[in-house]
Amino acid sequence: MSSTTASTPLIFHGTFIHSNNPQEVEIIQNGLLVISPEGKIILLQRNIPRADVQTTLTDIPKIPKIPKLPHLPSLPIRFLKRGEFLIPGFVDTHNHAPQWTQRGTGRGLPIMEWLNTVTFPHEAKFADKAYAHRTYASCVSGFIRQGVTLAAYYGSLHGEATKILAETCLEKGQRALIGKCNMARNAPDFYRDASNAESLAVTQDVIAHVKRLDPAGDIVRPIITPRFAICCDEELLSGIGAIAAQNPDIMIQTHFNETKQEVAFTRELFPQFKNEADLYLHFGLFNSRTIMGHCIFPSDYEIDKLREHDVGVATCPVSTTTVETWGAAPIRKYLDMGIKVGLGTDSGGGYSSSILDASRQAYITSHARQTLTDGKETSLTLNECFYLATLGGARVCCMADKIGSFEVGKDFDALEINALVEGQIAVIEDDDPIGMIFEKFMMTGDDRNIVKVYVRGRSIKS
Ligand code: GUN
Ligand code: FE
């Protein structure tokens, strides 16, 4: 058994809430959940009154296909009380780990100015391994505190620091996709890959290291991470595309149609491509394994391409509404077209490390789009926001077969919520129905209400 899992079976009885699809949130009451020592959900039953829990557990060994387990009825059971419930872990589909400590600074700047004056000087600090160790320890713990059980992380350009990020996630038990940023041009001398060849060699080295750390990819996996086309020339993008083709199991992430300044500059640098979809397609970086960050300004042609190639969208609404020329992604359109969508914090591009905040901002920006489109794009529902934070994010990361909802056979990546812990959450009244308690948590709760965080059955929030 791996040390990254639960080690003893876990048993929960009570309320479990998850998404079955973008529209439908299922509230399971009197649920019974059993998690194997390997961290897999091996039993999920609905409507088991508390008085019947022991009998049900006694009957479990008779259920076929369940591996040999210790005597379940003798194990402790976590009975969730009123106000307490389980939800799937939050997925952060777009996160710049090195920007952890710069969040909130440089608001209102256009993207290139923000990168050159705030972000690149800050990320350059990760040349120092001691700095990387302590900052990534704080970063990963910080996102775990917010209930992020899976993050798609951009590292800095440094190979060694990016390896430290992977080691930190593995040690702390946070599931993560981790990539070294490729950026060999349009960045300052002090923070740029020395050459295209070096950029590719470091990428290969980081991929090999992450695969060595966790060969099965149970917790950490590498992800190919060209920062964006502006920082890469044709030769580098071709090399990155070749790495993607050689490693069909590895995901890809970059920024896509994030700001008008970036779209215009990309056109100027790559006049042979009419748009960013054709550009990334040409280099083999636009497919069902790709996570495209932001996706604010794609044309209808590019949106069709997102769907045609089953590309995932990481929408980061806190980020996209707090830096100049950012905007609001057409999430309604994406969901209606069946395009995969999840939420991202974007770390320093935004200010908040909370997926709850991202979910609320997705709700707010979708309202704005409803007004701006004269009602053509209807605003998101709370159920859809919850889906984006959980199962939608799992789909974007191509892990919906493993995580994102409570199903027998999936891993137990979950948050134990206590809506009664006082903080900023709206007070729970004695006669509040469970649907209202869930709504209050989603709209007003915070990390104080996220009392436990599980990945593969292992409790990781300290
Ligand atoms: N485009 C290129 N790099 C970045 C980054 O670090 N953050 C955001 N939001 N956009 C980018
Ligand atoms: Fe970003």
Automatic annotation (TrEMBL):
<dbReference type="InterPro" id="IPR051607">
    <property type="entry name" value="Metallo-dep_hydrolases"/>
</dbReference>
<keyword id="KW-0378">Hydrolase</keyword>
<dbReference type="Pfam" id="PF01979">
    <property type="entry name" value="Amidohydro_1"/>
</dbReference>
<dbReference type="InterPro" id="IPR032466">
    <property type="entry name" value="Metal_Hydrolase"/>
</dbReference>
<comment type="similarity">
    <text>Belongs to the metallo-dependent hydrolases superfamily. ATZ/TRZ family.</text>
</comment>
<feature type="domain" description="Amidohydrolase-related">
    <location>
        <begin position="85"/>
        <end position="458"/>
    </location>
</feature>
<dbReference type="InterPro" id="IPR006680">
    <property type="entry name" value="Amidohydro-rel"/>
</dbReference>
<comment type="function">
    <text>Catalyzes the hydrolytic deamination of guanine, producing xanthine and ammonia.</text>
</comment>
<comment type="pathway">
    <text>Purine metabolism; guanine degradation; xanthine from guanine: step 1/1.</text>
</comment>
<protein>
    <recommendedName>
        <fullName>Probable guanine deaminase</fullName>
        <ecNumber>3.5.4.3</ecNumber>
    </recommendedName>
</protein>
<keyword id="KW-0479">Metal-binding</keyword>
<keyword id="KW-0862">Zinc</keyword>
<dbReference type="GO" id="GO:0005829">
    <property type="term" value="C:cytosol"/>
</dbReference>
<dbReference type="GO" id="GO:0046098">
    <property type="term" value="P:guanine metabolic process"/>
</dbReference>
<dbReference type="InterPro" id="IPR011059">
    <property type="entry name" value="Metal-dep_hydrolase_composite"/>
</dbReference>
<dbReference type="GO" id="GO:0008270">
    <property type="term" value="F:zinc ion binding"/>
</dbReference>
<dbReference type="GO" id="GO:0008892">
    <property type="term" value="F:guanine deaminase activity"/>
</dbReference>
